[in-house]
């Protein structure tokens, strides 16, 4: 008998299910917010990257509607042919001004921003020094670039120095790191990395997807957080997390942005962000520039939640941001913990190997400005109950 051509996929999926690694995707029946309807149940939401509650913010919704009345919906072309509207350019000017950089260019997502930028900056014969915990889109962009990829130990400037010293044959060099690491909520030691890059004349790129709208004064990002303006060559950001919409941005030196308009392949060969996306992002910049209220509330909420979790006896790892890993150890326990939380009315994802190291499984709690104090108290109650029931805390 001839085996079906897709039998191997069935076998792979069966194996994932056996190992408890099959990704069950839940369905939302409500807008993003502090509360969600998930698979038909109303639950407290601690799973989204909706840091500031902008995903369903009335001003963003109104801006998107208004723009659609004037411009329609789709860009109908790649940007270099006929898909760049004045609206796209306005968003890029606004983002550059917000972040305090010379220029910015937008992409369809943070993922495509990385796929555009890495191959535009380095290629065959070049070297990329990459933090070992960098995001998948950096890894894929680096592979596309066909440069040599040299990993350095996570957030370790000394190891970065050693790796740089070990590579003597190269054309160009680039250091790339996440700004905020999404699984632990820790921050790259950017001042040290920046000094190393300057000392050796190496280009420096930071992917600030989880820092955009979160870190720094009024959410201006990790470069602002460390006061490194003008010293990081290129910043990647996303408009899909704190900005509450979808899209990516590359911000930095004018010359790099100019180059990406010539050589960024997702810019040249894939259509632009849609009209409602762009208009909503402009409104998000308005909201952020007018007040730091949402960013402040996000950090207040995160501090309150972390303090409550510590008081209960939970281990929240090395977080320095509103991302709070609740460290549990083995993957089956994390899965069970997440299921029990959901039954108790709280939606927070279990994360295990291979996303994080073996034995480092956790629940990842995403704080948001959209949570009220009462929401946070309810969440702490639920964590206390499930934690005791499963013997994680006393
Ligand atoms: C989420 C994320 C991305 C991808 O952003 P999208 O806009 O969702 O494509 C890229 N890099 C990092 C570090 C991220 O956390």
Q: Would you kindly provide a written description of the structure presented here, covering whatever features stand out?
A:
This protein has 394 residues and is an alpha/beta fold. It folds into two domains: 21-51 and 292-389, Aspartate Aminotransferase, domain 1; 58-290, Type I PLP-dependent aspartate aminotransferase-like (Major domain) (Aspartate Aminotransferase, domain 2, 3-Layer(aba) Sandwich), CATH 3.40.640.10. It is 44% helix and 16% strand. The chain is built from 15 helices and 13 strands. The strands form three sheets. It has a seven-stranded mixed sheet with strand order 3-9-8-7-6-4-5, with helices on both faces. It has a three-stranded mixed sheet with strand order 1-2-11. Helix 8 links the parallel strand 6 (173-178) and strand 7 (203-207). Helix 2 (58-71) packs across helix 12 and helix 5 crosses helix 10. It is globular. The N and C termini lie far apart (58 Å). The relative contact order is 0.16. The mean pLDDT is 96. Pyridoxal-5'-phosphate is lined by residues 109-111, 135, 137, 178, 182, 207, 209-210, 238, 240, 248.
């Amino acid at each position: 008998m001839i085996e079906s051509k897709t039998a191997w996929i069935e076998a792979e999926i069966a194996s994932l299910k056996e190992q408890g690694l099959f990704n069950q995707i839940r369905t939302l029946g409500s807008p993003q917010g502090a509360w969600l309807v998930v698979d038909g149940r109303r639950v407290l939401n601690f799973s989204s990257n909706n840091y500031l509650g902008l995903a369903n913010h009335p001003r963003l919704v109104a801006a998107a509607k208004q723009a659609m009345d004037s411009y329609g919906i789709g860009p109908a072309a790649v940007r270099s042919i006929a898909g760049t509207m004045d609206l796209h350019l306005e968003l890029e000017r606004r983002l550059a001004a917000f972040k305090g950089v010379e220029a910015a260019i937008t992409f369809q997502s943070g993922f495509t921003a990385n796929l555009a930028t890495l191959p535009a900056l380095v290629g065959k014969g070049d070297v990329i020094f990459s933090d070992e915990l960098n995001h998948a889109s950096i890894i894929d962009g680096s592979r596309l670039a066909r440069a040599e990829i040299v990993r350095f130990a996570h957030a370790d400037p000394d190891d970065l120095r050693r790796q740089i010293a070990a590579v003597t044959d190269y054309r160009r060099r680039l250091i790339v790191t996440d700004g905020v690491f999404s699984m632990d909520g820790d921050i790259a030691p950017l001042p040290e990395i920046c000094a190393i890059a300057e000392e050796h004349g190496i280009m420096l790129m930071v992917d600030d997807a989880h820092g955009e709208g979160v870190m720094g004064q009024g959410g201006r990002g990790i470069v602002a957080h460390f006061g490194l303006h003008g010293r990081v060559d290129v910043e990647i950001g996303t408009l899909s997390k704190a900005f509450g919409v979808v899209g990516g941005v590359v911000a930095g030196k004018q010359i790099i942005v100019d180059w990406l308009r010539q050589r960024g392949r997702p810019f040249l060969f894939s259509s632009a962000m849609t009209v409602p996306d762009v208009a909503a992002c402009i409104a998000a910049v308005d909201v952020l520039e007018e007040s730091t209220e949402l960013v402040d509330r996000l950090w207040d909420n995160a501090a309150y939640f972390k303090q409550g979790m510590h008081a209960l006896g939970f281990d929240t790892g090395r977080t320095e941001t509103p991302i709070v890993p609740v460290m549990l150890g083995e993957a089956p326990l994390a899965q069970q913990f997440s299921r029990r939380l959901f039954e108790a009315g709280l939606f927070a994802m279990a994360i295990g190997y291979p996303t994080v190291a073996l034995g480092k499984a956790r629940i990842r709690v995403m704080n948001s400005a959209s949570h009220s104090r009462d929401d946070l108290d309810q969440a702490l109650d639920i964590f206390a109950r499930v934690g005791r029931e499963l013997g994680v805390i006393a």
